[in-house]
Amino acid sequence: MAAAREELLKDLEEVKELLAKTTRKRLRDVLMTEKYKLELEIKNQPPPKPKDAVEEEKVSLGGYTVKINNYGWDQSDKFIKIYISLNGVQKLPAENVQVNFTERSFDLLVKNLNGKNYTMTFNNLLKPISVEGSSRKIKTDMVLVMCRKKREEKWECLTQVEKESKEKEKAAYDTSDPSEGLMNLLKKMYAEGDDEMKRTINKAWVESREKQSKGDMPMDI
């Protein structure tokens, strides 16, 4: 978790540096969107655990840890329900299946299931949940995580990142205005690209600006 937070902070610093160097409105809009997204994600990261607690947890776990990526989910008026399949989980002592909730996240830890530990983390949930009203249930070959909604309203997805990704994809492929569609696609590529991709887009912008100043390219990209 600490490593993930550190990477987010590094990304934020890089975006701030690019903002300081950029004067073009459209590129600044791209960077400001990315800056806001990173700040929100950092804000919703769970606080880092004290070193002693981390060391104690490592000792108590033993074996090796598997990250859970497969799950199913649905919702009712009051709850978001996440279903995680784990063979034989019902045979474990109840204290071996732990879930820690915050208002916008939860961590699942299953200890010593067939000699392995299993973890799942959801950060930046789409909307706030009630920590006190949330819980977990152990069923046959399954753990059910129940996140109590603070407001009884429908969620279109589980996390804020998923929502933003869907919105960007929709905007990127909107061809009602070809030039706007291209700009949206470039924004999506820039926001999600690595350092090399960002340098490539910046280089293309500089070259297009030079051509425009010479009268070779009247279109503003």
Entry keywords:
alpha+beta; four-stranded mixed beta sheet; four-stranded antiparallel beta sheet
Helix percent reads 40-55%
How large is the share of residues in beta strands? Answer: 25-35%
The ordered string of helix (H) and strand (E) elements is HHHEEEEEEEEHHH
Q: Label the overall shape.
A: elongated
Point out poorly predicted stretches.
Answer: 217-221
Number of strands: 8
General description of the model:
- By secondary structure, this protein is of the alpha+beta class.
- The chain has six helices and eight strands.
- The chain has a four-stranded mixed β-sheet, with no helix packed on it. A four-stranded antiparallel β-sheet has the order 2-3-8-7, with no helix packed on it.
- Helix 1 (2-21) runs antiparallel to helix 2 and helix 4 (160-172) runs antiparallel to helix 5.
- It starts with a helix and ends in an 8-residue tail after the last helix.
- The model is unreliable at 217-221 (pLDDT under 50).
